[in-house]
């Protein structure tokens, strides 16, 4: 299903939308990692 999803999104989304979604995903992951590190340091 991963391959099907990949090809489906690859055809439906433009490269700009993929880039935007990737940046948002990286931002969310970055915030989560930042808070996890902060929580570990304060613990």
TrEMBL record:
It comes from the Bacteria. The chain crosses the membrane at residues 12-31. Keywords: Membrane, Transmembrane, Transmembrane helix. InterPro entries: EmrE-like (IPR037185). This is DMT family permease domain protein. It comes from Acinetobacter baumannii 99063. The lineage of its organism: Bacteria, Pseudomonadati, Pseudomonadota, Gammaproteobacteria, Moraxellales.
């Amino acid at each position: 299903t991963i391959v099907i999803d990949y090809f489906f999104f690859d055809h439906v989304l433009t490269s700009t939308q993929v880039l935007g979604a990737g940046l948002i995903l990286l931002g969310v992951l970055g915030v989560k990692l930042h808070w996890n590190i902060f929580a570990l340091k304060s613990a």
